[in-house]
User: Fold these one by one.
Assistant:
Number 1:
Amino acid sequence: MQKTIIVIPCYNESERLKVDQFNSLIQQPNLELLFVNDGSNDNTEQQLKEFIKKTAHGAHLLSLKINSGKAEAVRQGMLQAINDGATITGFLDADMATPVADVLRLRDEAIKKRYSVILGSRVKLLGTNITRNPLRHYIGRVFATFASIILHLPVYDTQCGAKLFATSGLLKDVLAEPFQSRWVFDVELIGRLLIGSKTFHPLTAIDFVEVPLKEWTDIKGSKISFGDAIKVPIELIKIAIHLKGRRQKLTK
């Protein structure tokens, strides 16, 4: 039986939590949510506890004492999901910019077991409703180009906040070590999977699929500041160096 546990990192999200949409997700069979409260200093944790208390099952909470960043919140959440028996795990943004219907489309693709990594992709096509800030969109296209070069993988959208992974020994191995990047860890995680580990063979391009979302809305309140954004090129360089080092260690 397939058990999906989706990690939702939360930091000061009391004004953006989409309780109705979370409730719709956990009504699905064999689908659970693991909220990771990343040291919030607002009412986020209390709201999550109240929501979980009202649900008979399907929603859980992992609380980090100090704010460690989205990357660490996701890493710890995914490791707990694996330890809790998830056959499919991944992460989703707390603002639910990716709506329930598209999350379920990604989950259904994961259940088919044709791919190890399922990436939501914000491609503005006819018949879709993808609403993005134009400046962020064009900056994102430049970012995606450099990310593809670093990964040697023709991926269109590395930064969509909806991703699912088939649980495996390799996934657990690559999550064992904290990420170098606080925000663009998605690229680093994909890179680690493409390199492999001492115990497990790497994934290849045929193990990945991008699923164009039918709807996505750019919601205000992003935790990435302008100062964080201008550090992204440096973050990409750090990731490239980190991945090169991991690759060299495995070939020794």
Number 2:
Amino acid sequence: MAATFSKGVVLPELVFVAFQATFAAITCALILGAVAERMKFSAVLLFMVIWFTFSYCPIAHMVWFWMGPDAYTDASVVDAMNAKAGLIWQWGALDFAGGTVVHINCAIAGLTGAFLVGKRSGFGKEPMPPHNLTMTMIGASMLWFGWFGFNAGSALEANSFAALAFINTFLATACAVLAWVVGEWIFRGKPSMLGAASGAVAGLVAITPAAGNVGIAGAFAIGTAAGFICLWGVNGLKKMLKADDSLDVFGVHGIGGITGALLTGVFNSPDLGGPGLVTDWVTATTGYPGIGAQFWIQLKAVLLTLVWSGVVAFIAYKITGAVVGLRPSEEDERKGLDIVEHGEQAYDM
């Protein structure tokens, strides 16, 4: 079995498996940012097995699975081929590289964990500044570079969609950095490097579903919107939710993913510079159902992902808590789980 995008283009199965595995791995890792420093390692492993099996895999299938263009040999087989595709794909939702599958999926699971696992010991009472801003900047830079592989690679071949996804990934992220920094400057009086790094991640998240589905103007709009909206997500919304989402997984990946997914439906419009979408795979004809109609399709995909992942995560946390327990003791948590559970530490104290 192999994956196909354009007619006649074939990817070896193991190449496609390896590519998809990178999305699966990072989605699981992102969840942990919301419960960082307070979840037992055994609990992490058990939770991930349950959540990955019953949330990530089904949603990835619903969004991305279809029979490929080569299956659409003539009009008589269209209905049968469409019926075999994933539910969200059948709806016509657009998700180029994982806005729903990765970011919204992991964000609601992380937020659920932040509520169920509870707040870090001393949270709100003791200072908890960023550990190392130099490493944060290095990490954000590496992430931005690597994200080109996610987004442009999701075209599954070197074509115009890959080129569009590449340049959109650059432009939207740059706009989000500027928007976040300007927002900080206005509301806090000072722009920060941590804010710039956070803005970069917000832009990358938001453009992910839109990368090959919108034009350059759409990338500018989505990136700018994500910078401002996610800044609110990690400040205003976080205070409203009163959850200890340690690394702002929901504020950045959740809010950014939702923003990008919804605006993809808007800026996919050819009237706004978008490429439209394929409406007939037999003839490869493109079209667009209208902003209202496509926005509604995108919203349904977002809502289904939020509910599905949230419910699965809740059940997975409960099962994990009953089997191995979610949290270490407060004493072990304060000592550091790297030392207590793994017998190692990053620095000599």
